[in-house]
Amino acid sequence: MRFIIRADKAMVVAFEPTAAEFSLEPGKKIIVEWLGGGEDGMVSLEAGTFVVAAPTGGHTRAWDADGVEIYVGPDSGPEAR
Predict the structure, then answer these.
(1) Could you say which of 3, 28, 65, 67 has the lowest number of CB atoms within 10 Å?
(2) In 10 A of CB 51, how many CB atoms?
């Protein structure tokens, strides 16, 4: 599954279960993809932090608006920053 998170205000996007964080500025977006695992991935907004939890048995990858991969854990690509 692939989806876009677009910010209308400054927020932090936290990726679980790795606890990696990415600051997202207003008007910017990131692309998130869930790979493998079940159908139970979850997103929520908690006190200004947008939480993305990978599906059980799966993992998450993410890219900024320029197509540069964001490091969200050990399953990120080798060029993730």
Answers:
(1) 67
(2) 14
Q: What is the pLDDT of residue 70?
A: 96
Alpha-carbon distance 30 to 65, whole Å?
6
Residue 47's pLDDT is what?
Answer: 86
Q: State pTM to two decimals.
A: 0.89
Give the tokens for residue 70. Answer: 């964001």
pLDDT at 64: 95
Partners of 66 in the beta sheet?
none
Q: What is the DSSP string of 3-26?
A: EEEE-SS-EEEEEETTTEEEEE-T
Q: Are 52 and 22 in contact (CB under 8 A)?
A: no
Cα angle at 42 between 18 and 68, to 5 degrees? Answer: 55
